[in-house]
Amino acid sequence: MKIYGYTRVSSENQKNDRQIDAIKELNIENIKIFEDKQSGSDFNRTAYQKLLKKLHAGDLVYIKSIDRLGRNYTEIQNQWRFITKEKKADIKVLDMPLLDTKNDKDLMGTFIADIVLQILSFVAQNERESIKTRQAEGIKSAKARGVKFGRPKKAMPDNFEKLVELVQTKKIKLKETLVKCGISKSTFYRRVKGS
Fold it and tell me: Which of 32, 66, 145, 188 has its CA 20 to 30 A from that of 112?
């Protein structure tokens, strides 16, 4: 039997120290801890897929909480069954001792784990949808207040329109104008379109 850990955060700039610390307390080697830094909306994650390839019957996977596995209700259920039924490996969720397929293999333990898994999977997906809604509302509100998103527009020289005219009449080369303005070709054409 091999013991693994799996951690996930939603983006590169988030830290998963809390999850790693909890798993390391179980004396799991670093090389057996798989870390993903991407959304939990699906399971096409590099480290997760590597973990699945390593898993064999009797192995054990620790995760800190069910939402670290994923945030898609149906997919969490499917992955849980894939790991426990097809791979015949076990899962222990540290924050929810009822989700422990290693110790509770009788009918009652399996029944309770299935119910808890369904509830927590629902909560995980519901939270994901709430985050998306709050984010969209926040963006809409910010835009209504005049907040601009993205990089600020680069200021063009005062004679930009004249430079455009010179380029269009082939009196100067586009490359020369790009250097003078300090912009890329695509930016130049976007500005021409907008001017």
Answer: 32
